[in-house]
């Protein structure tokens, strides 16, 4: 098992739980690393890639435990990815230290339209100077907006507002608006635009495989029915 910060955060969250976390499809036997149905496990396909860019995931409470979460895919490809649970009133001291690290350029990844008029905004990832630290607010769209509004320790950091040309291919949760993309898709595009082509390509490939196998595990999805038909024919 390739260890990473998201797996550690998930373990910490489970250790604090006072009752079992029951996500959709909780009756299906799942791999406890990738959270896919065991028959669709993709752990053996993981191939980490080096990159100049760095990522810090700020995850809403139950997000690390959701099988549909794609933020953890970033840590699969970039094992040095940092991950912290979000708290409005008691932010993790390690998170505060990470965003103040003088060796990186911290950038809060979020749409420009939500930034205050006087807040610095960039639309292209920096390709020179210190490595960028892309801070991803990982949750549902409603949760992400809450984290953006109620995280004063991030307010002084520039906003990285990215325009993605390709449509989202997520399909695992309901979108709350046109043009919205999941965390892994945004991260992969950031990598490509930052010059980390190999890592960006690898993350897009990993996301596509994850999406295919996730949907194949849903009993009423066509890909699951096609898989079952092939099995029965054999």
TrEMBL record:
GO molecular function: tRNA-uridine aminocarboxypropyltransferase activity
InterPro entries in the cross-refs: DTW, DTWD2/TAPT
Pfam families documented for this protein: DTW
Signal peptide: none
Keyword annotations: S-adenosyl-L-methionine, Transferase, tRNA processing
DTW domain mapped to chain residues: 27-219
Entry-linked SMART domains: DTW
Protein name, per record: tRNA-uridine aminocarboxypropyltransferase
């Amino acid at each position: 098992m390739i260890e990473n910060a998201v797996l550690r955060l998930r373990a910490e969250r489970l250790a604090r739980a006072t009752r079992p976390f029951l996500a959709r499809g909780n009756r299906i036997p799942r791999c406890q690393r990738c959270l896919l149905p065991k028959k669709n496990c993709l752990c053996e396909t993981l191939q980490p890639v080096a990159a100049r860019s760095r990522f810090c995931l700020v995850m809403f409470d139950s997000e690390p435990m959701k099988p549909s979460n794609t933020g953890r895919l970033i840590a699969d490809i970039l094992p040095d990815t940092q991950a912290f649970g979000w708290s409005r009133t008691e932010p993790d001291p390690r998170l505060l230290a990470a965003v103040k690290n003088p060796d990186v350029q911290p950038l809060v990844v979020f749409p420009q339209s939500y930034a205050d008029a006087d807040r610095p905004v960039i639309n292209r990832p920096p390709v020179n100077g210190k490595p960028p630290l892309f801070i991803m607010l990982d949750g549902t769209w409603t949760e992400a907006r809450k984290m953006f509004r109620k995280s004063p320790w991030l307010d002084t950091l520039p906003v990285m507002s990215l325009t993605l040309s390709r449509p989202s291919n997520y399909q695992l949760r309901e979108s709350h608006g046109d043009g919205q993309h999941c965390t892994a898709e945004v991260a992969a595009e950031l990598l490509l635009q930052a010059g980390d082509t190999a890592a960006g390509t690898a993350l897009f490939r990993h996301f596509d495989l994850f999406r295919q196998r996730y949907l194949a595990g849903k009993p009423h999805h066509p890909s699951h029915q096609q898989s079952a038909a092939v099995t029965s024919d054999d």
